[in-house]
Design goal:
The complex is a heterodimer of chains A (398) and B (362). With 398 residues, chain A is an alpha/beta fold. In chain A, 41% of the residues lie in helices and 18% in strands. Chain A folds into two domains: 8-146 and 296-343, Response regulator (Rossmann fold); 148-280 and 368-396, Response regulator (Rossmann fold, 3-Layer(aba) Sandwich), CATH 3.40.50.2300. Chain B has 362 residues and is mainly alpha-helical. Chain B has a two-stranded antiparallel sheet. In chain B, a hairpin with a 2-residue loop joins strand 1 and strand 2 (320-322). Chain B is globular. The two termini of chain B are 21 Å apart. Classes of the chains: A alpha/beta (398), B mainly alpha (362).
Chain lengths: 398, 362
């Protein structure tokens, strides 16, 4: 027994002394990735991390930042919140000046809170909840993506203006904050459209893992006239089944979505899907109006061996881009100075749409989206849209 | 009847006391060395951690202390009553949310928990006061649930505790105005100092020890080993179980509150099956009937997990970098646990406690 104690103690001692040698070094700038390298979040974190590394390579190849090389350190969150806090502290101990955390607010916040407590800038790779920033972490925290609410509002306004959609139906999957966020944006936009003659003809909810949404579908079928568009606030994997059931029931209305269903990997499950619209920050289909995006896609393929699987690759690139610009302008990596420069950004152009940060919101409440249309099972970019006014904070925080 | 409970050899039977009229505190004096040794082990780990000065390692050890609290809480009920409970993490959940309700700043609280009563929204207290209240709250909840559940025994009791866990989880995942639903609760002050966790772990160890040698604890252990004989000797089994259930519920609540402060984020799904199984596994590997087993089981498995993680991240020996594939940690951990249980079905410690004299329990 004493032996076991000794072994246990020795193991702890060994682990303690061998792990994490760290010290700050003035000759380099350190970016720490406290993201998931294993577990289910890896599917979201890895592509965006790869995109971020591409931007870091570009900056280093062009001579670095403030004349210093950017060095990358990583710690695995294992898609676990408690491990996330450790990963955050681990990259901080390795001297991180910027702490990059998981895509999702729930899984990224423990590491972001650790960075906030240490007075460092943190960036969520692609979280789309308003909490991923000042509201849920603190004044040094940002998100690289766009609020889910903007996606819902963009689709509603675009459909009304460009597709002459008059009647809308709202179908919400109550599973996640992200889904609710899309519909919150739709709800904020709808009264504005109603003053111009649009109409919300009905609404319903379901849950992502419902095996059947037959009840919801029969209520849509019971309407006197098929709605022009269904705002579908949902995400993978339940979205595939929902779309399939809607089309199988013979409902051919436009289906409007959030960015969460972008990608062609699932389209074979719903053969010949048409009239299906998704807002995206950039096109993974090789037809982005900006040739630079197509160049990035090629660079991504060269680095990882595969094309981007969805637009959630892109925020990682944007993140390093805007942060590096802020560091250049602040001429310092001091967190407060960098935050001040980030907050000065107003419609700062990036490869994937303009970015604005203010002292109230470290997230995008109005930005340009490309509209991807799937016809006969083939997605392509058909348009772009920017909502007419930014979504106010109180609509986001409700 | 004796054939039905073969491997269990109680070290603290009622027999040893009844045999000769006991002097006051004789049992306490004879057994106190166990919690003292365990506390010294905890202190040694804490001092060692302080010397490394590594923040992530500090966090790892905070996690170890939290697990110690939870596993000690489990031991108080499971170890002494012999009834496997899958529901105790529910009390951890209750404790964590009480900590959230009491420590988040009122402005944020108003936004996140609009359904809380006004006086509770206005309250904001230091984390340690909140942790004590969380423990009391979880203990009260255990009292209410336990009044009903403790009448059951065997597998029925285990399943009923599991049903309780599912119930607590469902309520906390859906009562949006009071718990924030499935969204993360944020704004809980983060405590990164290792000492509060150390103190709480040591307090839990001493409570568990005091309960085990108390009249109620001894009666419960007697009922665990020989229910018929214990009942015939006048032991009110549901009552003694209830006492243990409430004490263990309170310890779990304390652990939950501190867990909330260790990462600053609380969600209902943190306190569900994953945490239930890892804590039960630690108790079983260490030795279900032994306080030392529970505590050292945590330390041992945590050290193992940490070493495997560190191997996953990669080490270099000389010029050769070496790393095990990612995800192997979980597999290796499972294999090692199977080996331990194959060799020692009653866990590493079985029913014995550590002490300075060898195998006192036998």
């Amino acid at each position: 027994m004493i032996n076991k104690l000794k072994i246990a103690t020795a193991t702890m001692l060994f682990t303690a002394t061998a792990a994490f040698p760290a010290s700050a070094d003035d000759s380099k700038i350190v970016v720490g990735f406290a993201t998931a390298e294993s577990g289910f979040m890896e599917a979201y974190d890895k592509p965006a991390t790869d995109a971020a590394l591409i931007r870091i390579d570009e900056i280093n190849a062009a001579g670095g930042l403030l004349g210093k090389k950017i060095e990358v350190v990583k710690a695995d969150t294992k898609s676990d919140r408690a491990e996330g806090a450790k990963a955050g502290l681990s990259v901080l101990d390795q001297g991180a000046d910027l702490v990059v955390v998981s895509c999702d607010y729930d899984f990224g916040s423990p590491a972001a809170l650790a960075a906030e407590a240490a007075g460092k800038v943190s960036f969520f790779l692609c979280a789309e909840s308003v909490k991923a920033g000042i509201q849920g972490v603190g004044p040094h925290s940002f998100s690289a993506s766009v609020l889910a609410a903007v996606q819902g509002a963009t689709m509603a306004e675009w459909a009304y203006n460009k597709k002459e959609t008059k009647t809308f139906y709202r179908l919400l999957d109550t599973w996640t904050e992200y889904n609710k966020g899309i519909c919150d944006g739709f709800d904020w936009m709808m009264p504005k459209l109603e003053t111009k003659g649009a109409k919300l003809v009905g609404q319903d909810t379901f849950k992502n893992d419902d095996p059947s949404i037959a009840a919801q579908i029969s209520r849509i079928k019971a309407l006197p006239k098929e709605p022009d568009a269904i705002m579908l606030c949902t995400m993978m994997p339940g979205s595939v089944s929902a779309v399939k059931q809607i089309r199988a029931a013979g409902i051919n209305s436009m289906i409007l979505n959030g960015s969460g269903v972008d990608g062609s990997y699932w389209l074979s499950a719903v053969p010949d899907l048409s009239n299906f619209y998704v807002p995206v920050q950039g096109s993974i289909y090789g037809d982005d109006p900006n040739p630079e995006v197509n160049k990035f896609n090629a660079a991504y393929k060269a680095k990882t061996g595969a094309d981007p699987s969805s637009m959630y690759v892109y925020p990682g690139y944007v993140m390093i881009d805007v942060w590096a610009k802020a560091v250049e302008r602040a001429k310092s990596i001091d967190a407060d100075a960098v935050v001040a420069e980030l907050e000065k950004m107003k419609n700062e152009p990036t490869l994937f749409g303009p970015r604005t940060f203010t002292s109230e919101l470290h997230h995008q409440n109005q930005t340009k989206y490309l509209i991807a249309d799937t016809e006969k099972g083939k997605p392509s970019i058909i348009d772009s849209w920017t909502i007419s006014e930014p979504i106010p904070l109180d609509a986001l925080l409700k | 009847m004796s054939a039905a409970s073969p491997a269990i050899e109680p070290n603290l039977t009622t027999g040893t006391i009844v045999a000769k009229p006991p002097r006051p505190f004789v049992l306490a004096r004879r057994t106190i060395i166990t919690p003292i040794l365990l506390a010294l082990l905890m202190i040694a780990i804490a001092l060692l951690t302080m010397m490394t000065g590594s923040r992530p390692f500090n966090q790892v050890i905070i996690d170890v202390f939290l697990r110690v609290i939870l596993v000690v809480g489990l031991y108080v009920f499971i170890g002494n009553s012999g009834v496997l409970s899958f529901g105790h993490i529910g009390f951890t959940c209750l404790g964590a949310y009480v900590a959230a309700w009491l420590t988040i700043n009122p402005i944020m609280k108003k936004m996140a928990f609009s359904g809380l009563p006004g006086w509770l929204i206005k309250t904001q207290m230091p984390y340690w006061e909140a942790a004590i209240i969380a423990a009391i709250f979880a203990g009260l909840a255990a009292l209410i649930f336990g009044r009903i559940l403790m009448r059951l025994s065997g597998i029925a009791a285990s399943i009923a505790t599991f049903a309780m866990l599912a119930m607590i989880n469902t309520i906390y995942s859906n009562w949006e105005t009071v718990t924030g639903g499935t969204s993360s609760v944020v704004g809980i002050p983060i405590v990164r100092s290792i000492w509060p966790y150390l103190i709480a772990a040591i307090i839990s160890i001493f409570i568990a020890w005091a309960h085990a040698i108390s009249r109620s604890g001894l009666a419960l252990r007697a009922a665990r080993d020989e229910p018929t004989a214990a009942a015939a000797s006048g032991v009110d089994i549901p009552r003694e179980r209830l006492v243990a259930f409430v004490i263990s519920g309170a310890i779990m609540g304390l652990g939950g509150a501190l867990m909330a402060h260790s990462i600053g984020v609380v969600t209902p799904d943190t306190f569900y099956l994953g945490l239930t199984f890892i804590t039960i596994a630690m108790l079983v590997v260490g030795g279900m009937g032994s306080l030392s087993g529970g505590v050292i089981g945590v330390v041992f498995l945590s050290a193992l997990i940490q070493t495997l993680r560190w191997l996953e991240a990669g080490v270099s020996i000389g010029d050769v970098a070496f790393a095990i594939p990612k995800g192997l940690q979980e597999i290796a951990l499972g294999i090692i646990m199977i080996i331990i249980l194959a060799l020692r079905p009653a866990g590493v410690f079985g029913n014995r406690e550590i002490s300075l004299t060898r195998n006192r329990g036998d």
